[in-house]
Design a protein that fits this description.
By secondary structure, this protein is an alpha/beta fold. The protein has helices at about 10-15, 35-50, 65-70, 90-100, 115-130, 130-155, 175, 190-195; strands spanning about 5, 20, 25-30, 55-60, 80-85, 105-115, 160-165, 165-170, 185, 195-205, 210-215, 225-230, 230-235. It has a single domain, classed as P-loop containing nucleotide triphosphate hydrolases (Rossmann fold, 3-Layer(aba) Sandwich). Strand 11 (about 210-215) and strand 12 (about 225-230) form a beta hairpin.
Length: about 240
């Protein structure tokens, strides 16, 4: 029987998401540093690998930890995870070209952690140089990468898990003095919102994390509180 979702690696999180991550879409998880983005990716990757599925993991931030993976699952799962590392946006582009060659029926999950860091760095340099043609080229490259992921998910029914960074809006002096809080937004803005059918925001709280379901095809906006533990995550009050 065909299953439309895969497990997140946590029964509580699966229940919150109506069964887990959807197979035919991009799920984007965004939030500040230390909010649990990579941990959720590793948990999902370890779960699929333990089922004998191949996982393609594109790491652009150096956050992939074999030691953390061994805490979550047995060492045997490592053989089912194919790691692609990128340190430049051009290398991220090449990783996506490689991705198309690696897709087959054995692949059960694609992870990109993160989609935005190298894009953000490259964009910053182009803006400093006032090279607007380069800015357009970089944006087109990111759009192409997202389109590739969306087509793989939709046509091959391979779930795609993407992490994303955040930035804070600039506050005017008047807003600051009035006590207005900075709003937090995803890097990549409309591009990520368009291509992602499921969007989860993560926040750091004292002693725990908050997940907010910002976008979903069949579920309303809601919250989930959790803690990161040795074997993965645990629901928190």
């Amino acid at each position: 029987m065909f299953v439309s979702r895969i497990s997140t690696g946590s029964k509580e999180l699966d229940y919150w998401l109506g069964g887990g991550y959807e197979r035919d879409v991009i799920t984007t998880i965004y939030g500040p540093a230390g909010s649990g983005k990579t941990n959720l990716c590793l948990l999902a990757a370890a779960t699929q690998a333990s089922f004998g599925k191949k996982v393609i993991y594109i790491d652009t931030e150096g956050g992939f930890s074999a030691e953390r993976l061994k805490q979550i699952a047995s060492r045997e799962v490592m053989k089912n995870i194919f790691l692609l590392r990128a340190t430049k946006f051009s290398e991220q582009h090449e990783a996506f070209n490689k991705l198309l060659e690696l897709i087959n029926r054995k692949v059960g999950l694609i992870v990109v952690d993160s989609i935005s860091m190298l894009y953000r760095l490259e964009l910053s340099i182009a803006n400093q140089e006032r090279d607007f043609e380069k800015v357009q080229t970089i944006n087109r490259a990111l759009a192409r990468q997202l389109r590739i992921l969306a087509e793989i998910a939709r046509k091959k029914y391979i779930p795609v898990l993407v992490t994303n960074q955040v930035y804070s809006e600039f506050l005017s002096k008047e807003d600051f003095e009035a006590g207005k809080e900075k709003s937090v937004s995803m890097v990549g803005g409309d591009l990520l919102k368009y291509w992602s059918k499921c969007i989860i925001e993560l926040q750091n709280l004292e002693g725990k994390k908050r997940a907010i379901l910002r976008k979903h095809r069949s579920l309303p906006e809601k919250e989930f509180f959790f803690k990161i533990v040795e074997k993965g995550i645990k629901k928190a009050d």
